[in-house]
Amino acid sequence: MFERFTRGARATVTGAVTHAERLGADTVTEEHLLLALLDQEGSRASFAAATLGLTGRRASLEASLAAARRRGGLTRADTEALAGMGIDVGEIVARVEDAHGEGALAGDERKGRRWWSSGRPFTRGAKGVLENSLRVALGRGDRFIGEEHLLLALTARPGVVADVLAEHGATYATVDRAMYGAGGEGSAKAG
Questions:
Q1: Backbone angles phi, psi at 78, to 5 degrees
Q2: Alpha-carbon torsion angle 106, 77, 111, 126, nearest 10
Q3: Of 1.10.1780.10, 1.10.10.410, 3.40.630.30, 3.20.20.240, which CATH number belongs to 2-70+110-180?
Q4: By percentage, how much of the chain surpasses pLDDT 70?
Q5: Amino acid 68: pLDDT
Q6: Which residues form the Clp R domain (predicted)?
Q7: Could you identify which of 31, 74, 118, 190 might form a hypothetical disulfide with 132, taking C-beta atoms 3.0 to 4.6 angstroms apart as the criterion?
Q8: How far apart are CA 57 and CA 52, in angstroms?
Q9: Mean pLDDT of the chain
């Protein structure tokens, strides 16, 4: 599948590996893909990110992603659902961190085999984003996978990254509209 990636999409994937290495992560996650996408310039995805204000709020995005890691990867919807049952996730995180140190719930997703030559495997979620980017591209009638397909796939895959992007105004629909205009939503949402 990697042979279908454009130069920019390949740079995003290798950039994700670099982010994982810089952060000392044992695996490459959807978060690393997002951070690498935000590093790219001159593409539809970078234009959409700038239009939606993501590049100007990178620190806020990173803080939201860090907060989600501290919650053990729970989305805001998960946290709210648990609160509805009387479970205070913030209190649980505080107690676990008191006992085991800050970030104890961040976890390690070493479940996959080595999927990338860096020696750092991609998590199931990151692989899913790459696979969904192919579906997004094919759904649009594109033969190659570009950064725009990666960004759309990140917004389409349920989880923390899509949740954080939505909190910052970047849903599948808004990203699609920013990249392709009002009539851009002609493709099926990958899932």
A1: -60, -45
A2: -100
A3: 1.10.1780.10
A4: 85
A5: 83
A6: 2-185
A7: 190
A8: 10
A9: 84
Nearest C-alpha neighbor of 64 from the set 99, 35, 37, 98: 35
Query: Residues 147-166: pLDDT tens digits?
Result: 999 999 999 999 999 999 99
Torsion of CA 60, 64, 70, 74, to 10 degrees: 180
Q: Do the Cβ atoms of 72 and 93 come closer than 8 Å?
A: yes
Nearest CA-CA partner of 172 in 10, 160, 158: 158
The DSSP 8-state label assigned to residue 28 in this structure reads B
Predicted pLDDT at 100: 75
φ, ψ for residue 43, nearest 5 deg: -125, 170
For the whole model, what pTM was predicted?
0.79
- Domain ranges for the chain, please list them: 2-70+110-180
